[in-house]
Prior knowledge:
Residues 11-170 form the PRP1 splicing factor N-terminal domain. Residues 106-149 form a coiled coil. The chain starts with 28 loop residues before the first helix and ends with a helix. A two-stranded antiparallel sheet has the order 1-2. 28% of the residues are buried. Among the domains are: 276-415, Serine Threonine Protein Phosphatase 5, Tetratricopeptide repeat (Alpha Horseshoe), CATH 1.25.40; 835-933, Tetratricopeptide repeat domain (Serine Threonine Protein Phosphatase 5, Tetratricopeptide repeat, Alpha Horseshoe), CATH 1.25.40. By secondary structure, it is mainly alpha-helical.
Amino acid sequence: xxKRNFLNEExxxxxxxxxxxxxxxxxxxxxxxxxxxxxSEEAIKAALTRRAEQLGQAPPTAYGxxxxxxxxxxxxxxxxxxxxxxxGLFASGAYDEEDDEADRIYQSVDERMEKRRKQRREAREAxxxxxxxxxxxxxQAQFADLKRxxxxxxxxxxxxxxxxxxxxxxNRKARQNLRQRFYAVPDSVIAGAVGAGAFDTSIAADEDxxxxxxxxxxxxxxxxxxxxxxxxxxxxxxxxxxxxxxAATGGTESVLGTSSxxxxxxxxxxLNKSVIGKSEAEVGDIKRVRLLLDSVIxxxxxxxxxxxxxxxxxxxAGKMVQxxxxxxxxxxxxxxxxxxxxxxxxxxxxxxAKIIVxxxxxxxxxxxxxxxxxxxxxxDPRAKKKVIRKxxxxxxxxxxxxxxxxxxxxxxxxxxVLLARAVELIPLSVExxxxxxxxxxxxxxxxxxxxxxxxxxxxHEIWLxxxxxxxxxxxxxxxxxxxxxxxxxxxxxxxxEEWIAEAEKCEEEGAVLTCQAIIQETLGWGLDEDxxxxxxxxxxxxxxxxxxxxxxxxxxxxxxxxxxxxxxxxWRAAADLEKNHGTKEALWQLLEKAVEACPSSEVMWMMLAxxxxxxxxxxxxxxxxxxxxxxxxxxxxxxxxAVKLETSSGNYPQASDLLATARTExxxxxxxxxxxxxxxxxxxxxxxxxxxDAALQKYPKADKLWMMKGQIxxxxxKLPPAREAYALGTKACPHSVPLWLLxxxxxxQAGxxxxxxxxxxxxxxxxxxxxxxxxxSVRVERRAGNLPQAKQLMAKALQECPHSGLLWSESIQHLxxxxxxxxxxxxxxxKVDNDPILFVTVARNFWQERKLDKAxxxxxxxxxxxxxxxxxxxxxxxxxxxxxxxxxxxEVVGKCVAVEPRHGEVWQGVAKDPRNVGKGVEEVLGLVMExxx
Length: 933
């Protein structure tokens, strides 16, 4: 039986097309046959009525059967009536004018509320839109600032914008390079290349007796079973050395064998000498730009920048003839554009340029730049004057032309005539008025400036010129007050900062009185009493000092002190200015005014006394201190200053009497301490011990008194009473670290290390987490030669005080091997922030490694971090003695003397030694340098 084709077979029973792939079946009219008409409405009603009678029920009302109505049906119907249709209760009401007015009021209220809601909604929507645009800016908004900046681009910059060029091939090559794979060269290849290309000069004998050259090179055997790692390392070093040599010398042959045309020394020079248009890429770029510019000038021949760009392109390509031809056609197409004419003059020679400028001014007689260029093309001064005067006939209101005309005049009288005519024609030009005033005599200049003020009442430059003229003629300046009132009335008053700038300019030009007058009249302009005027003026003065304008700063301080007469900070700042940048006489005068204004300020009295004393006026210093005593009778600072003055001058009896009086009238702990130190300095040990005992009766908590008592006994080699003094002191002052250190060092000096350790252990319990005590414990063990114990203590110390530069420096400098110091320094710098002790350690490490520049830099960082630390200055000078110049050493010593450091571990011990009392800073610096280790 022949099998039918699959497509022609009948479908199986119950087959639904597409059911296997999720399709659902549906029924159409063809499946159920044509539609039939249903029962009518009357038949349905009749059927329902019969059904209701059989059931004994009332017939339904849905199909028009009658139903009973209640009396309340009308009321129910009224409930659902239209509220706008007033019936029932309001049917009989009359709609009068009041109702109309009420409706209008309600309507206006609704409209107003709707308007307010609309405004709020619009504001909210605008804020949301602005926030969305800020977070999601458009491309146009992102480049808005760049588009605005493009408006300032000149024609030259437009013409010099380079063409992007076709980068598709270049990008394709870059992608191909990225897809390349690189493999490491095996060691056997490197070892085999050690002697490649080298000639062997050694001779070896074969078995037959002939002499042959021995080939040397790789260390591997022929079968590869043996590798010579020494040769491999040598080969790698050789390759690395070749790389470094080529990179340093810029050789023309690279390591990989490819040639390099880059000369590092002459690269920029070769760029300057390169000729545009030689490479194919540059030729293509020029051709593309030429086509673009040709299209520009053809489509818009009246567009001047297009002609200029086309001419400059030919100029860059080296085709000057074509460039001149193009710009000539541009002049014909754009005869009213001065830029085209100026470009044509630039591209042509002088003679041709004169012809071009003649045509240009003929076409554009009102363009100033063309006349100026025409004047510059002339070589004869008379021809220049002729051109300028012809230009002035055509453009008499040009300030530029009048200035050029005045410059050409050699006789001042002719220049004055020109300027007089110029100010008549251009009365609003400040420059011309000022130039004319400078050429006139002082009397005529004053009259000219008066006319200028009437012509330009809003110009402050004319008022400043009048003030400077007044300073030159009369030696005083009174016109600035009138200037301020006049400018204020004209509402042309500059800002306060602008006046300060004008004052600094006058100071720079030597008009000091004008500078002071400007500051006096304008410093408070725009500032109210509620503003912090004192702070603002101090900042202004400091800014002027930073710019080197000391007279301006002096005037600012003077003006501020007239307002804040009793402010000590202002007097101090003014005194510092005079001390650093003024004369001694000016400083004395200022300090005398300061003590009159602030008689209770002991600092001012002491500054004045010190300045008198350092200048050699001892009697004047005594007189100042006597006045200070009268104003501050119980001030310990003034008493001690007087004692120091008498001690320095060698008048010990007077100093002793002053101290005795001070102990009676101002018997503070500090006065007693100075009294003990004075007697100790004189060598009167019994008196010193008597005074220290009496002082301890009054001030048992003064740790310095206990330290001085122990030091006196220790200097006399009386260790038991010294030990007792320290013991009592540590009980009375358990938190005094220097006292604990002295007690421990006494036991170490006596050779009793066990007691020294015990003292330091008790000290660390009394004052926990103190780096000085931990460092002393480590040093005790280190000096005893017990390095393992010292390292163990240092580890504990760094756990308790991880941010101590002192501990890190001690550990790195004395407990670490030299090879481990650098990584430990890096770790310390991460944990310690801006510590001068650690900075010195870093500098010393670089010093040991002979990296002198870095050592110098770190020493200076340490000085900047804390200039009051004397040990830093001593280490710096010790370094400069070996590696510095005489000039640098003198500079550092001068700075150290000016700073007068008072702190430092070694510095304090040397400076407070009774044997060094009276020595200057430079002498103490030398002694500290000797003790450093």
